[in-house]
Amino acid sequence: MSTPQTSPNTAQKFAGTEPGRAIEFTCNLCGKANRRTAAELGRENRSCFSCGSSVRVRGLVRSLALELFGTNLILPDFPRVKSIRGIGTSDTAQYAPLLAEKFDYRNTFFDRAPQFDITSPPEGECGQYDFIISSEVFEHVRPPVEAAFANVCRLLKPNGVFVLTVPYSLEDHTLERFPELHEYTVTRLGQTTVLVNRTRAGLLQVFDNLIFHFGGGATLEMREFSERDLMTTLAEAGFEQVHVYGESFEPFGVLYPEPWSLPIAARRGSFALSLESTREIINDRAELCSAVHRASDDLQHLNRALWVRLGRKLGLA
What we know:
Largest sheet: 6 strands, mixed
Number of domains: 2
Order of helices and strands: EEHEHEEHEEEEEEEHEEH
Strand content: 15-25%
Structural class: alpha/beta
CATH class of the largest domain: Alpha Beta
Number of helices: 5
Distance between the termini: 82 Å
Oligomer: single chain
Number of strands: 14
Strand order of the largest sheet: 4-3-5-6-14-13
Radius of gyration: 24 Å
Shape: globular
CATH superfamily of the largest domain: Vaccinia Virus protein VP39
């Protein structure tokens, strides 16, 4: 298996950031202006005054813009290209509705309707998607997680891209919390929540000190990835190019003071838009330019009319 093309070592990109430094930015989800200190721009902090987006979410959407269009765009300015097909896995309401307006996109969930089980996707959907977007999901997928990554690759078109975030460390190996998970349940035992598992060999296991993200049930943390193992897993799943978006982008309020848990884009092949998608983008921009010109002409007519009426009132016309 060949190693995919990857970005440079992300640890080399980071320098100290003054916590009190003020940063003015435009939220690339809602388009609103913000001013925050660097200390307020934590990965999970709700740091947009308008929509409440975090650095993680803004970085994810920025990565999608760069992968689809090769430039930094706020989400409201994405062109409307219905020939681009995408699917979300538990995307938030901060950006999922706008993606649905722009693309042939639907959002799904791992644990509730509309449900999409990435461990066993329908065969009829393989090779159907230009992009798949996933934020903080794959650390919750039951093992072996390698099969889920391989399924993502199968779902994508030959030039499709997988944009994701997961918590990961710079340790040598991924930490699997339940490596022999087979038949299991999460239940209460006294005052403690435990996981009870029966391995394939029939051994009964009980785990406590469980870690849940934002609730219970399907938010149980199954693993903490390491960057090294994550890159290897994506390569073995069939992705040819992998890029870690470790560069901060302050105009969108995306600040990365640490070199881990960064947005990642994994491609099956080289970037390419279909002729249909390119045509839609051109038509969308042409319609926008035409609307701007019409608005400009209307404004000029209005201004002339206002000056004429003012001149008449002053006895100048």
